[in-house]
TrEMBL record:
GO terms for biological process: caveola assembly; cell differentiation; regulation of cytosolic calcium ion concentration; regulation of membrane potential. It comes from Astatotilapia calliptera. GO terms for cellular component: caveola; focal adhesion; Golgi membrane; sarcolemma. Its main location: membrane. The gene is CAV3. The chain crosses the membrane at residues 82-109. PANTHER family: CAVEOLIN, CAVEOLIN-3. GO terms for molecular function: molecular adaptor activity; transmembrane transporter binding. This is Caveolin. It is found in: Cell membrane, Sarcolemma; Cell membrane; Golgi apparatus membrane; Membrane, Caveola. Keywords: Cell membrane, Golgi apparatus, Isopeptide bond, Membrane, Transmembrane, Transmembrane helix, Ubl conjugation. It is a peripheral membrane protein.
Amino acid sequence: MTCSPTMADQYQYNTNEEKFVKDSHTKEIDLINRDPKQINEDVVKVEFEDVIAEPDGTHSLDGVWKLSYTTFTVSKYWCYRVLSAVFGIPVALLWGFLFACISFCHIWAVVPCIKSCLIESQCVSRIYSLCIQTFCDPFFEALGKIFSSVRVALRKEV
């Protein structure tokens, strides 16, 4: 007697399976660590000290220096926030479109083209190999037998 799963068992299996499958479009993103792969680690981390520095002997007033630091830091912070609020979504849309086009071209044009070239080159390679084995191998084998009896003697004359 075989025990086949009932319709309810199959439904329970399918709903359990769906719980583990996550769609890549709805995955949760980390709002704390926004550069987990650290692709911008050394590129855009610009602080006040990296841009503006006063050498010894040439110092501005302390108040000017503090206000310059505050102005630089706050303006950089808010400028980035405003630019990302205004242009972030359109630029993300453009980058998404660009990478979608690149992926499409790679999947539907580049890889098939390369595969086609490989198939054609294998065909040409077999024909070339057959020609070499048919014509060149006997020719060079005969030349080898002809010149195999040649002896070269080196003499050093003083």
